[in-house]
Design goal:
Two copies of one chain form a homodimer. Chain A is an alpha/beta fold and about 375 residues long. Chain A has two domains: about 1-195 and about 300-385, Rossmann fold (3-Layer(aba) Sandwich); about 200-295, Orthogonal Bundle (Rna Polymerase Sigma Factor, Chain: A). In chain A, about 35% of the residues lie in helices and about 15% in strands. Chain A has eleven helices and twelve strands. Chain A has helices spanning about 1-5, 140-150, 165-175, 195-210, 225-240, 245-250, 270-280, 285-300, 305-310, 335-345, 370-385, and strands at about 20, 30, 35, 40-45, 55-60, 90, 95, 100-105, 155-165, 180-185, 320-325, 350-355. In chain A, the strands form three sheets. In chain A, strands 1-4-8-5-9-10-11-12 form an eight-stranded mixed beta sheet, sandwiched between helices. Chain A has a two-stranded antiparallel sheet with strand order 2-3. Chain A has a two-stranded parallel sheet with strand order 6-7. In chain A, strand 11, helix 10 and strand 12 (about 350-355) form a beta-alpha-beta unit. Chain A is globular. Chain A starts with a helix and ends with a helix. Residues about 1-10 of chain A have low confidence and may be disordered. Chains A and B meet through helix 4, helix 5, helix 6, helix 7 and helix 8 of A and helix 4, helix 5, helix 6, helix 7 and helix 8 of B.
């Protein structure tokens, strides 16, 4: 296996992005806001082999700026290409073991990584949708994933797993299609955004909308709102870190020099780092997608649905088994919010395991390779197989 | 006293902003960055009566966007005019008792509330300084306050009091002019910014500098960078609040409507509130002043100076008496940072009292009328009179 040798860090090897298009007129997708929309293309990737009885599928849901590329590499010819965003978790013998499971990850509706989003061409005009793209919800994203699974002939998934906005999709799966889900692993997530989380999203949106290049969303032919998007990313990035992690990673260390510039250059490493993160982001992400996805996250609220899903309403033999994971230093979706989810599920008689992982690196902890999370997920999946 | 009757909430009555100008060429102010600068005008206000022996002065240092208007009213004719920003603390019989003390507050150098700042006319060109304004530090702000006190013939201050960046000025007074300070009350502050605090300031600066109207600081004749400044204020505002306070104040309550707009209007009250705070701020504050003051706060670092100020180096009979105050929900300058200050001062043999106040309203707690803080400060001052 030369592929594995040349990419020794990853054991999934070379993977390929695939596309599924549905909701062709007149059979449009009915969105949660009542609008009808289509066609919809969903970019997705799969890893491992689907069992003959199609019982071994695991759906991985990605976070805000993620994509379908969970593990492995697209090409064999670029030495330093990075593997997928959760390569440490997904692969043969890993937490989500591709020797056992058929793993699927789909880019969310509204994104800009292959699935239909505000930057996609509007078939009616051939121009990008811009703000003519409809407001999509986490529920709509899940409906699109359901359509993809239908197309693959998968009637039941062994597990749905995801962190952050990926975790919201996990919860949405559980309330919308409970009969299709055997295990659910929502990580570093919440049943609904707090005012603080909405506030940071709103600041990010306002930053983009304050950029004259944004031009009410019509910028695809010209200059893009790079400045606004970069600031928006800086805001988001800080919320994904933690006070402790930033002290450890940057402290007050200076960038290139020994003394202050006494000007508005980046004196501190943390300033350079944030500027770099902002610039890097504009090269890979679409500002309008940020607007749509953050709004979907703000709208998301499964508290009522979760409260309704109790034993009285759920007489199935095989109820969903939940593994809920939070991180001590996550201040975007703090552990108290995970505990509210645990309490809600326990009150309604669900099968819940909960683990708070001690980590100083904030909300993004679930994306950082960590044996504890891999073993936790691996063990949980083994126990439910 | 008709003044007091018509402004029953304030007992200081009508006050007047005063101005002191110094550092006339060729006797310029030498700044910490080595540059010489002048003339410098400092706007200030006083409350109460200076004792004949000039021993009862208390200097109040204001926070980032504050001004010299601590208490009372400027006019008697506007019923709904708001009193000064710390009217609950400063007045006859209040925590800082103007029947006993002569209270002075000076607008900081670099600000836009009467003291010389980047929006002031450069005498060489008659145009506003813009980025030709020199980078000033917390130390420079304190040197300007010292010049003001000299002009008033005050050789020793009974106390220097301030929260946030005001607290930094308090600490700077203690390390720079310890022989002039009898008591120091730094509130909700830090010896130096953490990477997190620098990060939020940098995001605010980048937001302003991303606004094309900012025009490298030259906007005074034309359109101002209102959009960038509004977003910067939104960022700052969130850091002054807390998760708890925002849950209590806003939660997920909707603005004006019963359902989601499924668009980019402000659906949630917290969104409207932040937008309102942003818009309100651009009407009263100068974007360049934000750049300069946040940079001064980021540069501020008295850890080394504080460590040097020990019994070995301080043989005075009357050492400074410190009262250090922090708030449980302040995540900008959390209590652990106040405790570092306490430890540093204790290690060097200083006279330190420390109080952490239980409050859910975040960093801005010290600005909110609270009997606990008033009694704490009043009691401390009484004990040292």
């Amino acid at each position: 296996m030369t592929l594995e040798t040349s990419h020794s860090r990853s054991s999934v090897g070379i993977v390929e992005k695939q596309y599924y298009t549905f909701a062709h007129p007149p059979e449009l997708l009915v969105l949660e806001n009542g609008a009808e929309f289509g066609p919809v293309t969903i970019a997705y990737e799969t890893y491992g082999t689907l069992a003959e009885d199609k019982s071994n599928a695991i759906l991985v849901a990605h976070a805000f700026s993620g994509d379908s590329h969970v593990a492995g590499y697209y090409r064999d010819d670029i030495e330093d290409e990075k593997p997928g965003w959760w390569d440490s978790m997904v692969g043969p013998g890993k937490g989500i073991d591709t020797d056992k499971y058929f793993v699927i990850c789909a880019n969310i509706l509204g994104s800009c990584m292959g699935s239909t989003g505000p930057g996609s061409p509007n078939p009616e005009t051939s121009d990008p949708y811009g703000l003519d793209f409809p407001m999509v919800t986490i529920g709509d994203m899940v409906n699109a994933q359901k359509a993809l699974l239908d197309s693959l002939g998968i009637e039941r998934i062994h597990a749905v797993v995801g962190g952050s906005i990926g975790g919201m999709q996990v919860l949405q799966w559980c309330v919308r299609f409970p009969e299709m889900v055997r295990c659910a692993i929502p990580i570093a997530t919440t049943m609904r955004h707090s005012a603080l989380a909405i506030a940071f999203n709103e600041i990010a949106r306002q930053s983009i909308m304050a950029d004259p290049n944004w031009n009410n969303g019509n910028y695809y032919g010209g200059s893009r709102p790079d400045m606004g998007l970069a600031v928006a990313r800086m805001v988001g990035h800080v919320t994904y870190l933690s006070d402790e992690a930033m002290r450890r990673k940057f402290g007050r260390r200076l960038q290139d020099k020994e003394t202050f510039s006494f000007g508005f250059n980046a004196d501190f490493q943390v300033e350079s780092y944030l500027r770099h993160q902002g610039i890097k982001f504009v090269n890979r992400f679409d500002a309008n997608s940020l607007l749509y996805i953050t709004k979907a996250a703000d709208y998301f609220d499964v508290v009522e649905s979760m409260n309704k899903s109790g034993p009285a309403n759920d007489t199935r033999q095989n109820k969903i088994k939940y593994l809920i994971v939070s991180y001590t230093s996550d201040w975007l979706y703090p552990t108290y919010q995970a505990k509210e989810l645990v309490k809600t599920l326990k009150r309604t008689g669900q099968d819940v395991s909960f683990c708070e992982i001690e980590a100083d690196c904030g909300h993004d902890a679930f994306l950082i390779p960590d044996d504890r999370l891999s073993k936790l997920i691996g063990g949980f999946l083994n126990g439910t197989a």
